[in-house]
Amino acid sequence: MLRALSLRPRARVGVPIFMHPVVWQTIVAAGMQPVFLDTDPLTLGLSLEDLRKKRNRLDCLILIHTFGYPEDFDAVAEIMEGKPVLEDCAHALGSTYRGRPLGSLGDGSFFTFLFSKSLRAGGGGCAITRNRALGERVEKLLREGPEETLLGGSFTQLRIFFLA
User: Fold this and answer.
1) SS3 for 101?
2) Residue 35: beta bridge partners?
3) Among 12, 26, 44, 136, which is most buried by a count of CB atoms within 10 Å?
4) What is the β-pairing status of strands 96-97 and 60-64?
5) CA neighbours closer than 13 Å in the CB half-sphere of residue 31
6) Model pLDDT, residue 23
7) CA dihedral in degrees (155, 91, 43, 78; nearest 10)?
8) Of 31, 82, 29, 30, the residue nearest 55 (C-alpha)
9) 134: part of which helix (H) or strand (E)?
10) 87 to each of 6, 60, 147, how far by Cα in Å?
11) Sheet of 33-37: strands edge to edge?
12) CA 115, CA 96: separation in Å to the nearest integer?
């Protein structure tokens, strides 16, 4: 999904420092640079204070809803001022933010279905977006891309869903 955003080469992607290593590895594999953001000691999620400090250095943000705990999306969107925000909902299936399901807030989101997740399917995942053009670019990249993911699974296991 990062590549489908059509960001500049070596784009800087903000990501909380407390996350699974595959997140920053994916950023690097997409030809972009991770910019690590501090963690809020109370929630273990993103430090909004650090995001404010580093916002001008970012082209995009991956917002991780750590342990399914919803991040303050309104504050994040305000800080990012229209720059793309992708939601990592690997542990957030079923969680909501102000009555809206996590995964429906940003420009796009992704869920994974590994053994340690809320919904276990042995692997694979799904990407969600309301932006049809973004979803079509993701699908095109999946069709044309490598067969293997960073974790050794197949890209054909990923499905794209469009939100109305």
Assistant:
1) strand
2) 14
3) 26
4) unpaired
5) 9
6) 86
7) 60
8) 82
9) helix 132-144
10) 17, 11, 24
11) 33-37, 12-16, 60-64, 85-88, 108-112, 125-129, 158-162
12) 22
What pLDDT band is residue 164 in, cutting at 50, 70 and 90? Answer: very low
Distance CA 35, CA 120 (A): 30
Taking residue 67's Cβ as centre, other Cβ atoms within 10 Å add up to 11
State how far the Cα of 59 lies from the Cα of 139, in Å rounded to an integer.
22
Query: Is pLDDT at 121 greater than 60 in this prediction?
Result: no
Paired tokens of 154: 């197949």
pTM over 0.90, yes/no: no
Residue 150: half-sphere exposure toward Cβ, Cα within 13 Å:
11
Binning pLDDT at 50, 70 and 90, where does residue 155 land? very low
